[in-house]
Specification:
By secondary structure, the protein is mainly beta. It has a domain of about 100 residues: Hcp1-like (Pnp Oxidase, Chain A), CATH 2.30.110. The protein has 1 helix and 10 strands, in the order E-E-E-E-E-E-H-E-E-E-E. Strands 1, 2, 3, 6, 7, 8, 9 and 10 form an 8-stranded antiparallel sheet that branches. Strand 4 and strand 5 form a beta hairpin. The longest helix is centred in the middle third of the chain and has 11 residues. The mean pLDDT is about 85.
C-alpha cells in the first residue's frame, strides 16, 4: 500500500514565511524552539528531588534570504529602534509535495535584533544572501 500525501513527511524546502501582510521567499529559517526550564525541588525526608516545569523560553529566529533590491528586512530592525509598535507576528508555513499548506508555526511579539548584510566578494560566484535575527515571545503550532 502506497503512502498518501497526508502521511508523507514534510520536505524541508517547501515553506513560506509571512511577516505581517508580506510573504517572503527565503533560503533558510531556523530557531523555532520553545523550552521549559526544569526546576528541582528537594523535600525533606526524600532521597530524590522533584522536577517541576519552570519558565518557558524561546529561541532566536534566523531568516536567510537572497539579497534583492528591496530593504524590507532591514526596515524591521530600523522599526525596532524608532517605532513604538514595532512588534509583529510571523508565520512559517510548511507545505506538502503538492504545494498545499499543511502546518504552520506562528511566532508572536517578534522584533528584529540583528541584520547582517551580504558579504561581498568579487572572486565568488555565490548568491548574495542577507540574514536577520528575530526575537519572539511565543510560538504556536497549528495544522492547516
Amino acid at each position: 500500500m502506497g503512502r498518501t500525501v497526508a502521511n508523507d513527511p514534510t520536505q524541508r524546502f517547501r515553506f513560506a514565511v509571512e511577516i505581517g501582510t508580506a510573504e517572503f521567499g527565503c533560503q533558510t529559517v531556523g530557531g523555532l524552539e520553545k523550552e521549559l526550564e526544569v526546576t528541582e525541588y528537594r523535600e525533606g525526608g526524600y532521597k530524590t528531588t522533584h522536577k517541576l516545569p519552570g519558565i518557558a523560553t524561546t529561541g532566536t529566529l534566523s531568516i536567510q534570504k537572497g539579497a534583492f533590491a528591496n530593504i524590507q528586512m532591514y526596515t524591521m530592525i530600523k522599526e525596532a529602534l524608532e517605532n513604538q509598535a514595532f512588534r509583529k507576528d510571523i508565520a512559517i508555513i510548511e507545505k506538502n509535495r503538492l504545494g498545499t499548506a499543511i502546518r504552520q508555526f506562528k511566532v508572536s511579539e517578534a522584533w528584529a535584533s540583528k541584520f547582517t548584510a551580504p558579504e561581498y566578494d568579487a572572486s565568488s560566484s555565490e548568491v548574495a544572501t542577507e540574514t536577520i535575527e528575530i526575537q519572539y515571545e511565543d510560538i504556536v503550532a497549528s495544522v492547516l
